[in-house]
C-alpha cells in the first residue's frame, strides 16, 4: 500500500538498522525474567522488581540526557546508544559463563538498557525529521510500525526455540549483536549532519530538564495526545501480568497457548500499519487518528471475560487482534503528528520527556494494579482497567493542528 514510495538510501539504512535492532529485542523478549527464575531462582517479588524498577531507574537516568542530546549530532548519539546497549547486554552472558551472575547485575543492565532505549528513540525521532521532508514522515513511520509488528510475530517464538536449544542467555547474546549491527547500519547512512545550533552560551540549568514537558503542555495538540497515550499505554500494560495470572493459573492455559494468544493477533498490527496511510489520505490524518484512538479503547475490557478451553483462547485472540489492529493504525499517525508539531530544535527533549513519562507511568500503574489484583482478584482488576480505558478517548485532540512549528518556534497555547 505504501511500498512503492521511495524514501532514499539513507532512510533504507536507518530502516534496516531499526529492523535488526527490533529483531534482537523481540528474540530476547522475556529473557531477563526467565533468567531470574531459572538461573537465579528468583521469586515473584524479585521478578516484579526486575520488570518495574529497572524501567523506572532507566527513565530517571534518561531525564538529563534529553537536553544534552538536543545539541549533539543525532547520528552519533544513535550509534553510541546502540554500542552502550550492546556492551551492557554482553555482561550478562559473560557473568553467566563465569558463574557470577546476580539479580543486582540484571537490574543494573535493565536500567542501563532502558535509559539507552529512551535516548535512542528520542534521537531517532529527531534524526528522522531531519532526514525526510514532512510529507514523507507518515510513510516512514508506517514502515517502521509495520516492521515492528512483523518482528513481534516471529521474534518471541524464535527466541523461545533458541533458548531451548542453546540455553537461557542465547537470546541476550543475539540482542547484543543486533545492536552492534544496528550501529553499523546507522553509520552507513552517511551524509553530512550539521551540528545543532546552541543558544547563547550558558551553563546548564536544572530547569532545562523540564523543557520537554513545558513544550508538550503548552501545545494544544500535543498536550491531550500526551495524556491520552501515557494513560492508555499504562493501563494496557498494567493489566498484562494479571491476564497472565488468570490464563496460566485459574483458566489452565499452557505456556504455548498463552504465547499464541499474543503472537497471532500481532498480524493485526501489521495490517493496521499498512492501512494507516491510505486511510489518512482518504479521510484525513486527524479524523483517522481520533477514530483509531477511540476504537482501540473499547477492546481491552473484553479481556476480563475469557473462560477456559478453546472458546476462552479465541476470545483473547479476537480481543487482542482488534486492539492491536487499531493500535497499528493509530501509532504511525500519532508519531507523525508528534514530529510535525514539534520544532526541530526541541524534538529530542520532547520525545525524551514523553518516553520517560510513559515508562514511569507504566511502572507505577503496573505496581498499583498488582495490589488491586491481590485485593479484588485478577478478573475484577482487568475489568477496572478496561473501564478506565473507555475514558481515554476524551483526552484525544478535538481539532486538527493548524500549523507545524519550525526551528525554535514555540507552540501556541489555547
Description:
The protein has 16 helices and no strands. With 414 residues, the protein is mostly helical. The chain folds into two domains: 185 residues, MFS general substrate transporter like domains (Growth Hormone, Chain: A); 190 residues, MFS general substrate transporter like domains (Growth Hormone, Chain: A, Up-down Bundle). It comes from Streptomyces fungicidicus.
Give the key terms.
mainly alpha; 414 residues; Growth Hormone, Chain: A; 0% strand
CATH architect. name of the largest domain: Up-down Bundle
Largest sheet, if any? none
Name the CATH superfamily classification of the largest domain: MFS general substrate transporter like domains
Helix content, binned percent? over 70%
What is the fold named in CATH at topology level of the largest domain?
Answer: Growth Hormone, Chain: A
Rounded to the nearest angstrom, the radius of gyration is: 21 Å
- Give the rounded overall mean pLDDT: 84
Secondary-structure element pattern, one letter each: HHHHHHHHHHHHHHHH
Identify the overall geometry: globular
Number of domains: 2
User: Which consecutive residue ranges, at least 5 long each, have pLDDT under 50?
Assistant: 407-414
Number of helices: 16
Q: How far apart are the termini?
A: 37 Å
Précis, in short:
It contains 16 helices and no strands. It has 414 residues and is mostly helical. The protein has 2 domains: 7-191, Growth Hormone, Chain: A (Up-down Bundle); 210-399, Up-down Bundle (Growth Hormone, Chain: A), CATH 1.20.1250.
Amino acid at each position: 500500500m505504501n511500498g512503492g514510495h521511495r524514501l532514499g538510501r539513507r532512510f533504507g539504512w536507518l530502516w534496516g538498522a531499526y529492523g535488526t535492532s527490533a529483531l534482537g529485542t523481540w528474540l530476547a523478549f522475556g529473557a531477563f525474567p526467565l533468567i531470574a527464575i531459572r538461573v537465579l531462582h528468583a521469586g515473584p517479588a524479585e521478578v516484579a522488581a526486575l520488570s518495574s524498577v529497572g524501567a523506572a531507574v532507566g527513565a530517571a537516568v534518561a531525564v538529563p540526557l534529553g537536553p544534552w542530546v538536543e545539541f549533539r549530532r543525532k547520528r552519533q548519539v544513535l550509534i553510541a546508544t546502540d554500542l552502550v546497549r550492546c556492551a551492557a547486554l554482553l555482561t550478562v552472558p559473560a557473568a553467566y559463563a563465569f558463574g557470577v551472575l546476580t539479580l543486582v547485575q540484571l537490574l543494573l543492565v535493565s536500567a542501563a538498557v532502558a535509559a539507552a532505549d529512551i535516548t535512542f528513540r528520542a534521537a531517532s525521532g529527531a534524526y528522522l525529521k531531519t532526514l525526510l521532508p514532512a510529507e514523507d514522515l507518515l510513510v516512514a513511520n508506517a514502515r517502521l510500525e509495520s516492521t515492528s509488528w512483523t518482528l513481534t510475530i516471529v521474534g518471541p517464538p524464535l527466541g523461545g526455540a533458541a533458548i531451548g536449544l542453546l540455553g537461557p542467555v542465547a537470546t541476550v547474546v543475539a540482542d547484543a549483536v543486533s545492536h552492534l549491527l544496528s550501529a553499523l547500519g546507522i553509520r552507513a547512512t552517511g551524509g553530512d549532519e550539521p551540528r545543532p545550533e546552541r543558544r547563547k552560551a550558558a551553563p546548564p540549568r536544572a530547569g532545562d530538564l523540564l523543557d520537554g514537558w513545558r513544550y508538550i503542555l503548552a501545545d494544544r495538540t500535543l498536550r491531550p495526545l500526551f495524556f491520552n497515550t501515557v494513560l492508555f499505554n499504562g493501563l494496557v500494560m498494567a493489566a498484562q501480568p494479571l491476564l497472565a495470572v488468570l490464563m496460566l493459573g485459574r483458566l489452565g492455559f499452557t505456556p504455548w497457548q498463552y504465547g499464541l494468544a499474543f503472537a497471532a493477533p500481532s498480524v493485526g498490527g501489521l495490517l493496521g500499519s499498512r492501512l494507516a496511510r491510505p486511510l489518512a489520505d482518504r479521510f484525513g490524518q486527524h479524523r483517522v487518528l481520533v477514530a483509531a484512538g477511540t476504537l482501540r479503547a473499547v477492546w481491552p475490557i473484553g479481556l476480563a471475560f475469557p473462560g477456559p478451553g478453546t472458546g476462552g483462547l479465541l476470545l483473547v485472540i479476537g480481543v487482542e487482534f482488534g486492539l492491536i489492529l487499531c493500535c497499528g493504525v493509530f501509532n504511525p499517525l500519532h508519531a507523525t503528528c508528534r514530529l510535525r508539531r514539534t520544532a526541530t530544535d526541541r524534538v529530542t527533549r520532547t520525545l525524551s520527556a514523553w518516553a520517560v513519562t510513559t515508562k514511569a507511568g507504566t511502572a507505577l500503574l503496573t505496581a498499583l494494579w498488582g495490589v488491586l489484583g491481590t485485593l479484588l482478584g485478577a478478573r475484577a482488576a482487568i475489568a477496572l482497567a478496561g473501564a478506565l480505558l473507555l475514558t481515554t478517548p476524551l483526552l484525544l485532540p478535538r481539532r486538527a493542528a493548524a500549523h507545524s512549528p519550525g526551528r525554535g518556534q514555540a507552540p501556541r497555547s489555547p
